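Page 47, continued from p. 46.
Same chain as before, 364 aa.
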Amino acid sequence: MRLLEQTLAAILPTNAKVMAEAQREIDYCLKPPGSLGKLEDIARQIAGITGKVRNTIKKKAIVVMMADNGVYAEGIAMYPQDITRIGADFVTSGRMGVNFLANYAGADIIAVDVGIQVEVDLPKVINRKVRYGTANFLREPAMTRQEAVQAIEAGIEVTNQAIDEGYDLLGTGEIGIGNTTASSAVLYGFTEAPIDRVVGRGAGLTDEAFERKKQVVKQAVELHRPNPKDPLDVLSKVGSLDIAGMTGVYLACAARRVPVVTDGLISNVAALTAMRIKPEAVQYMIPSHISFEPGAKLLKEITGLEPMLDMNMRLGEGTGCALVFSIIEAALRMIEEMGTFAILGKSRDEIGDHIMAYRGKFPR
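Result:
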């Protein structure tokens, strides 16, 4: 618990002064104000995160948290639970969906066993196993409160190590059969929104299994009555170890002032959990894509994280992060490489005054 408390104490708002300085540089680029849209938003946000107007990315990685879920016993998943262990093998040998996208983006994979149900003896898998999968939360709490904290702290530890090794842009991903059910239960525990806005088909469930999944989520939350104002209570009662691990990634990045990219439904449920623990953490998050799962739209409304891409994707693993890494790097090149109004003999102050007047008439 001490590591979590220290991390939370270190999280401060992003630097508004530097963001304003970055906006001044963006506005001085030779273009109409705001014409590069979200690229401008990204460059300004990262300036606020790092405290520097000019930024380049040197090393990037996707932290993939892997864990099993006891609720699998309720028939809510299409694939056998052995897939989680196989996924650990495949993601570290370059054969999962996230790998080819990460390779294209020039990003590394940091694979973490935070709760796979069996022993995993793979040299490229970091062992931070809290327990051998969660309990079946339809019958009992998924884990203890202390285990939830331990999994969050595992995410913090792995992220701190990555940052110490020079990684300055991170993404979050997960592998775990049954984790869409756990993420739906956490989202439902926080919101109690209509169940059809929360629960989706995950990895291609049949109609019967889909209805069963919705029943399981509702019944689990009704059974345990997690306190929506206590994120650790929600996470421990109806959550998963991979969600907890990714929550730690977000919190560590915020504490260390490193930008972190969200992925799909499960990743964004972890982002919501991190925000409920420490609201300022959201200022360090950059959303990638909107998942095909219905809960993704609800999450967008709650978190305010506006995804860049809509690709009908629902794989998870951090695939969306890999896709937007290049967009983020492109945004940072704007200040470095674009020509400016200096070519017209205009100063930053002149352009700034002109743009302020323009935005007064035509606010964004």
